[in-house]
Amino acid sequence: MAVIECRQVTRTYRRGEQEITPLERLDLDVQAGEFLALMGPSGSGKTTLLNLIAGIDKPTSGVLRIDGEDIATFSRSKLAAWRGQNVGYIFQLYNLVPVLTAYENVELPLLLQNLSRSERHERVSSALHLVGIADRHDHYPRQLSGGQEQRVAIARAIVGKPRILVADEPTGDLDRTSAHEILTLLRELTRSVGCTLIMVTHDPHATEYADRTLHLEKGRLVEQDEGVAS
Amino acid sequence: MIRPRMLPLVLKYIVRHQARTLLTLGGIASAMFLFCAVQAMRDGVAEATQETADETTLVVYRENRFCPFTSELPEDYGRKIAAIPGVAEVSPMRIVVNNCRAALDVVTYRGVTEASLRSMDLMLPEGSIDDWTRRNDAALVGVRLAERRGLKVGDRLSAAGVTVTIAGILTSTNPQDQNVAYVHLDFLQRAAGNKQGIVTQFNVRVADSTQLDAVAAAIDEVFSNAQAPTWTSSEKAFVSRAIVDIVRLTSFAGWLGIGSLVAVFALVANAISLSVRDRIKDHAIMQTIGYPEHLIARLVVAESLILSLLGGVLGLSLAVLVSWFGSFTISVEGVSIVVQADIATILAGMAICAAIGASAGLLPALRAARMSTAEAFRAV
C-alpha cells in the first residue's frame, strides 16, 4: 500500500519578478517501509519534493496524500503537530541546535509530547544507543565530528518513532567512510524500525543502499531504477 | 505560558551570548534602579503631604515666613490659642536646623515641653522618656537620624551650635519624627541664640477634625493685628508649602522614571530582536520537528519576560539595599522626606518589568513564528 501519493503535484514560487517552478505535475507513489533515493542535478526539484512530503511546504496545485490524508489542507498548527508525530527530518548539514547537547537535541522533539522525564530519558538513551553515539551524549555539536553530528541528527529524527524519514543529502558533507556508516545505519533503521525513508542524494554510491532510485530533471520524473540493496 | 520542561531551553538561549545578556541585564538593572529611586522619592513626598479626613493637627507659623530661622512667635500665644473653642491641646515648639535649604543630611532639633512629648505617639526601642526628663541637654533621636549619624544612647550630637546627649532612639508612625531630635524647649531656647520665650511654631490638636479649617481661621483672626501675625494650616498643608520646590522636582523626576521604563523596553526589545535574528535556523529546525508557531512565539516571549524580570530583580534589589543602608532623607526648612524603597514600590517595579518583558518580546516573537520553515532555511 502506498504511504505517499503525489498526483499532478506542482510547486511554484516567486523570486522577485521571476516565477520559478521547481516541481511540475509530478506523480509518485512510495510504499510503506520503502527506502527511496531521489537523484538529479541542482534545481531539479529534489529538495522541494522532500519538503512537500515532510509537510514543511505545500504544493501550489495537485494532491499530496500521506496515509490517505491530503496534508496540503492542514492548517499550519495542525501541520506542525502532524510533522512532530509522523516525520523525522535529516539535513545535509545536520542542523543541530548549537546551544543544546547531543542528548538535549535528541530530546527536543519529545518535549512536545506528554512524556515524563524518565520516559523521555529512556527514549533518548535508546535512540543515541541505536545510532552508536551514547558516549557523546553530553557533547555540544561544536565538540562532535561531522559523522557524529549526523548520527545525533538521525537519533533526533527517529526518537519520535515517525512513520516517514526524509533525508536531504545526509552524506553530502561526510567523508566516504562516514558516509558508508551513515547509509548502512539508515538502511538498518528502515528495516528495524519499519519506517519509510526518502533520501535526496547526488552520490551514485548512496543509491546502492536504496530499494529504488528516482531521477528528477527540471521538476519532472525522468527515470526509475530498482536498487541493489540487500 | 510555557511548560516547565521548556524552561531549560529558554535559559540556554538567554546565556548563549553572555556578554550581550550581561550588558542588557546591566542596562535594565540601572534603569530599574533609577525608576525605584524616583518612585521612592515620590512616595516620600506623598507620605509627607497627603492629607486624610481624620487630620486633627494644625501648625501655627509666623505669617509670610518659610524657614525655622525666621519664624518667631511669643511663647505666651499658647495661652490665647488654648482658649479658642475647639482646641484640645497646644504644644509650643522651637525648631533649629543646621541647614535651611534642601539637603540630605540635615539635623533638626525640636524643642518641646515634657507634657507635649508625653502626648506624642512615640515608641522608644532604646532609652526612655524618664532618662530624657532627668537631663536638661537630653535628646530623643529619630531612628533614621540615628542610623544616618551612627548614634546610640549616651552619645553626644553636635549641630547648629547645639550639643545634646542621646537619651533614647525613637520610632513613630509619623515620618517627620524619624528624622528629628526632640530636646527640652527651654534648653533649645537658651542654647540656640538665647531666645527665651520665643518659639518657632505651635502644634495645635483640634477636638473635631471637621472643625480644622474653622479653628485655623479663628487662630489667625486672634493674632491678625498683633506684632507677630500667624499663618495656620493643617500639618500636611504646612509640609506641602514648605517643600513646594521638592514637589516640583519630584514631578519632573517622574518623567525620568518614565524615561527609564522606556529604556528598559528598548533594551529588552533590542536584545530579543537580535537573539531571534541569530537563530532563524534554530526556529526553522524546531518547526521542522513539529514545534507549532504559537509555541515558538511563546518561547521568545518567555525569554523576553525572564530577561526583563532578571534585570528588574537586580536593579530593584540594588535600590532597596542602597535606600535601606543609606537612610536617605531630604530635609528642607525643617521638614523631612524619607526616601526609602518600600515593598509596594518593589512589587510595582516587578509588575512593570513583567509587562515590559512580555510586550517587548511580542513583535520579535510574531516575526519568528510567522516565518515559513522553507523560507527560513533559504534565508540561512
What layout of secondary structure does this protein have?
The complex is a heterodimer of chains A (230) and B (380).
Chain A: E1 2-15, E2 18-31, E3 35-39, H1 46-54, E4 61-66, E5 69-70, H2 76-86, E6 87-90, H3 102-107, H4 117-130, H5 146-158, E7 164-168, H6 176-193, E8 196-200, E9 212-217, E10 220-226
Parallel strand pairs in A: 3-8, 3-9, 6-7, 7-8
Antiparallel strand pairs in A: 1-2, 1-4, 4-5, 9-10
Helix pairs in contact in A: 4-5, 5-6
Chain B: H1 7-14, H2 18-49, E1 57-62, E2 73-74, H3 77-82, E3 87-97, E4 108-112, H4 114-119, E5 122-127, H5 129-134, E6 138-142, H6 143-149, E7 156-159, E8 162-172, E9 180-184, H7 185-191, E10 198-199, E11 201-206, H8 212-222, E12 230-234, H9 235-242, H10 244-278, H11 280-288, H12 293-326, E13 329-332, E14 335-338, H13 343-370, H14 373-379
Written overview of the protein:
The complex is a heterodimer of chains A (230) and B (380). The longest helix of chain A is centred in the C-terminal third of the chain and has 18 residues, at 176-193. By secondary structure, chain A is an alpha/beta fold. In chain A, the strands form two sheets. A six-stranded mixed beta sheet of chain A has the order 6-7-8-3-9-10. Chain A has one domain: Rossmann fold, CATH 3.40.50. Chain A is built from six helices and ten strands; from the N terminus they run E-E-E-H-E-E-H-E-H-H-H-E-H-E-E-E. In chain A, a hairpin with a 2-residue loop joins strand 1 and strand 2 (18-31). Chain B is an alpha+beta fold and 380 residues long. Chain B has helices at 7-14, 18-49, 77-82, 114-119, 129-134, 143-149, 185-191, 212-222, 235-242, 244-278, 280-288, 293-326, 343-370, 373-379, and strands spanning 57-62, 73-74, 87-97, 108-112, 122-127, 138-142, 156-159, 162-172, 180-184, 198-199, 201-206, 230-234, 329-332, 335-338. The model of chain B has no long low-confidence stretch (mean pLDDT 89). In chain B, strands 1, 3, 4, 5, 6, 7, 8, 9, 11 and 12 form a ten-stranded mixed beta sheet that branches. A two-stranded antiparallel ribbon of chain B has the order 2-10. In chain B, helix 1 (7-14) packs across helix 12 (293-326), helix 2 packs antiparallel against helix 13 and helix 10 (244-278) runs antiparallel to helix 12. The A-B interface holds A 51, 54, 56-57, 76-77, 80-85, 87-89, 95-100, 104, 108-109, 111-112, 117, 156, 160 and B 3, 5-6, 8-9, 12-13, 16, 281-282, 285-295, 372-374.
